[in-house]
Design goal:
Length: about 180
């Protein structure tokens, strides 16, 4: 039995969970999330908990059990308290600014980099060098944060670029440190 999959998921106050066929819908104060699960997985609402079980003992069912329990848990958690990723911009002249709902990044290129967030994702900029990506879908928040980071990943000599908050950049010595 999957150690993760067998754990029940508590439904917090203010969150409503419905199951319609193979689709679970979680509705909360911050939004609505849906999780579509395969026929090998069975999801039931028992009181104030959601229980995820597998129908068979074959390899595919066992591998999907913990995954879909986590996806359901993330959907329920996300509609109550949104997920967020924080990024930092390091470098002289590198900065970010909001342009409506889009983010305008000046990252040392000859042109500005403008990123329009997908529906359900909110981007905020504090102090021109700190970016917060938040939303109810954990995967989408991570994807948008990774997209912003990919526009100028931190380099190893000076550490300039866009990095996650608290990310450690392994620094290399330049030519002078080779002796």
């Amino acid at each position: 039995m999957s150690r993760i999959g067998k754990l029940p998921i508590a439904i917090p106050d203010g969150v409503e969970v419905k199951i319609d066929g193979n689709v679970l819908t979680a509705k909360g104060p911050k939004g609505t999330e849906t999780v579509e699960f395969p026929s090998e997985i069975e999801v039931k609402v028992e009181g104030s908990e959601v229980v995820v079980n597998r129908k068979g003992e074959d390899r595919k069912s066992r591998s999907l059990h913990g995954l879909f329990r986590t996806l359901v848990s993330n959907a329920i958690h996300g509609v109550k308290t949104p997920f967020e990723k924080k990024l930092e911009i390091v470098g002289v002249g590198y900065r970010a600014a909001m342009q409506g709902s889009a983010i305008n990044l000046s990252l040392g290129y000859s042109h500005p980099v403008i990123i329009e967030p997908p529906q359900g994702i909110t981007i905020a900029v504090e102090a021109n060098t700190k970016i917060t990506v938040s939303g109810t879908n954990k995967q989408l928040v991570g994807d948008v944060a990774a997209l912003i980071r990919s526009k100028r990943p931190p380099e190893v000599y000076k550490g300039k670029g866009v990095k996650y908050e608290g990310e450690y950049i392994a620094r290399k010595a330049g030519k002078a440190g080779k002796k």
